[in-house]
């Protein structure tokens, strides 16, 4: 850029000199030299402009590349920050996992001891279950015998129930007959009582007559005794 400015100043100076030489009507040889030098300077300026244009494009490309790289750097920095946070979290997580692992190992040790104790208990329970299985088989056999006896007793019960129903029916009939008999006896007792009352009345009247007769007889006896005396 500085070279371009220098060339432009030299070109302006040459143009000014050329104009001054034209006005003063100088000799043709120096004018040709000046024109030739101006053409050279113009070529140099043109070349410089081309170089500047290329360099500007390169600079623009480099700026874009720098911008992209800065963006990429910013993204990478953010990614690094995230990774550092993730790393910190993973370290904390690893520490937590280590503590959990230690607790799990202790718990596993306790669980193994508990498992051994449970295995011993299971073995004892298996032996107990074996004994109980034998006892259950025996109880099943006794239950089968009891079921057969129950079936027999149920048959006997139904048979006895049928007999009892028949006897209840007979008893009902006998009770009906007994009630009829009692009614007949009450009727007969009533008739007999009436007859007894009638006989008692007749006997009382007869007794009264007999007493009167006895009294007369007694009076006659007394009279006879008196007569005999």
UniProtKB/TrEMBL annotation:
Residues 1-33 are annotated as: Disordered. Residues 45-177 form a coiled coil. GO terms for biological process: centriole-centriole cohesion. Signal peptide: none annotated. Residues 1-17 have a biased composition (Basic and acidic residues). PANTHER family: CENTLEIN. This is CNTLN protein. It comes from Oxyruncus cristatus.
């Amino acid at each position: 850029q500085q070279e371009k400015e220098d060339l432009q100043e030299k070109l302006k100076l040459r143009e000014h000199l050329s104009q001054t030489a034209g006005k003063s009507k100088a000799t043709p040889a120096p004018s040709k030299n000046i024109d030739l030098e101006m053409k050279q300077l113009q070529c140099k300026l043109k070349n410089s402009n081309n170089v500047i244009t290329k360099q500007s494009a390169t600079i623009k490309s480099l700026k874009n590349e720098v911008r992209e790289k800065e963006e990429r750097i910013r993204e990478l920095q953010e990614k690094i920050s995230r990774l550092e946070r993730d790393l910190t979290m993973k370290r904390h997580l690893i520490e937590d996992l280590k503590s959990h692992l230690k607790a799990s190992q202790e718990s596993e040790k306790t669980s193994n001891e508990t498992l051994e104790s449970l295995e011993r208990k299971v073995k004892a329970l298996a032996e107990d279950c074996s004994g109980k299985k034998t006892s259950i088989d025996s109880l099943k056999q006794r239950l089968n015998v009891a079921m057969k006896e129950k079936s027999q007793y149920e048959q006997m019960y139904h048979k006895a129930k049928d007999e009892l129903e028949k006897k209840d029916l007979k008893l009902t009939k006998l009770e009906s007959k007994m009630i009829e008999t009692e009614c007949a006896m009450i009727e007969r007792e009533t008739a007999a009582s009436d007859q007894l009352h009638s006989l008692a009345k007749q006997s009382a009247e007869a007794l009264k007559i007999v007493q009167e007769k006895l009294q007369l007889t007694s009076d006659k006896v007394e009279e006879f005794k008196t007569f005999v005396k």
